[in-house]
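Form 7-S
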Amino acid sequence: RGLVPPADFISLAEETGLIAPIGEWVLHTACTEALSWPEHLTVAVNLSPVQFRDSRLATTVRGILEVTGLPGTRLEIEITEGCLLQDEQKTLTVLCELRSLGVRISMDDFGTGYSSLSYLRRFPFDKIKIDQSFIRQTPADKDSAAIVRAIATLGSSLGMKITAEGVETIAQSDFIIKEGCDQIQGYLISKP
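Output:
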């Protein structure tokens, strides 16, 4: 079938329970690959909300870090708000366990789900990633620009790094940098 995009197989993997071994393989492969990079670079890995239901998640991550030799400080776990909607206390416990390993935690696709600001206060996030649906419209669309500006200001005030997703043009990049985002991600930099 050729390349199959994640949108076509992630939900099926979650339904069948295959997301756990797939996620473990992805995490192990990403950590192994990151070892070949300069030491100042980190690797970010998305985790499914289903993976957070597994009480062994932090133990699995710890084991992968030990086996690969990658310091926890070079690993960033990206989660969406869907992870926070299930069992908040259990999720908080897992996130704190991951943080104790030195792993950084990012809120991915911020602004598209429920976007409860209380999540930013209650959970130990190191980074907010502004969803590309807002970035795509900047700087021309005033509403999108205002939302990006507000998220960047909020995150900075809370001591979090801010990443803009989906940056495709120089104008978007210039706007994002001017608004105080720390990092950009998108086709302007490179293909995934």
